[in-house]
Amino acid sequence: MAAAAQAANSDHWAVIVAGSNGFYNYRHQADTCHAFQILKKNGIPEDQIIHLSYDDVANSSMNPFPGQLFNKPTEAGVKGTDVYEGCGIDYKGKDVTAANVLAVLKGDAKTAGGKVLNSNENSKVFFYFADHGAPGLIAMPTGGYLYADKLHEAFKYMHTNKMYQEMVVYIEACESGSMFENILEDNLNIYAVTAANSKESSWGTYCSPDDKVDGKSIGSCLGDLFSVNWLEDAEKAKMNVETLQDQYDNVKKLTNKSHVLQWGELDWTNEIIGDFESGLKQSEPDFWHVLRSAGKKMIKETFDLNKWEIERKNSFAVDSRDVKLHFFYNQVMNDPSEENQKALQDEIAHRMKMDKTFEEAFPNHMDAIKAGTTPLPTDFDCLRKLIATFEEKCEPLDDYSLKYVKAFVAECEGIKAFPSAIDSTLHRLDKVCAPKTE
Prior knowledge:
Elements: H1 2-8, E1 12-18, H2 26-41, E2 49-53, H3 98-105, H4 109-112, E3 124-130, E4 133-134, E5 137-138, E6 146-147, H5 148-160, E7 166-172, E8 190-194, E9 203-205, E10 212-213, E11 216-217, E12 223-224, H6 225-236, H7 244-254, E13 261-264, H8 274-277, H9 287-303, H10 307-315, E14 318-319, H11 323-334, H12 338-361, H13 366-371, H14 380-393, H15 405-414, H16 422-433
Helix pairs in contact: 2-6, 6-7, 11-12, 14-15, 14-16
């Protein structure tokens, strides 16, 4: 009764976004449903958790466990934890858009048409996003990309309109650091953590052959490496003892395929995670409670009790850019049907086509892309224009070809002093993307 009363009066809010669709992207919807379950279990009222997810995976015909999602494998004979049952989703399908994410954050119910943040200057807000990304953007399943400048504008709007006291942001995406590097100030009372820096991929984990639940293969990666690390940490943490800094240190140690980084305001990372990942008012831990926790942490670090767990997650991790290829490859290994072989061949052909297209369109930037020395985006209008033109003239970018957004960024930054030069770039895209004649 007391916990229920506290939860009803909670001023803790959360926005959770799974920004993809398709069964090969299983992990994103499993990640966000898992996050929903943790926040709900820890006392954030359901009407103060806003969840956007395309919601096409749990009931996919490819799912060996219809109507269920799992974010962690289990051995044969051990029933997995279904994170889909009771997972509230407020925006589904075509409503999972960048415009709606921004509207939800800004409390704009008229635009969003559904639940939005109704927080105030006393609120603690938690924002978690899981999907694909590229320099200066994170992807959405429909309605265009969510660009760093627009997300930043939303954060500033929230700050100006006193929609939070403090906000924590976790982003799982390739090049996710580019959403904040040289963008997020340290005076907005926002603390952010990204799965990767601005140059590298993030990684899926619990991928085949480690994708089995109760001995049965799911056929897709169950989670993302950064995401399952913070989620599993939150599950076993004492919410009124573990701090944001503790969680960052734990997750950084567990995530060794990419560089987990902190951004924004770092002078209050000594606050407990319960202020953001739970809805109950957390009592101050007593001295002995803190001492016991510190002792357990020291023992764990000294004897490296998590070594096997770290090795397992990282051994079966797959670069997010390659998860789709990995998915089709395993489809063929499990069932070498003509249909599955064609799907794999089509994916390989598509990747080769994208490599050739960008090499022809942006030959001067290929060395920098391979070396990881392309600049960060500052001219977002140019970036939006080049991406829109490419997707109109060539084809939509996908998990793999998003890696080449770096070429668009390099081009925009290179012609920044000569705005008219963009016409030449657009003409080059027209030429490269024009149908080839025999």
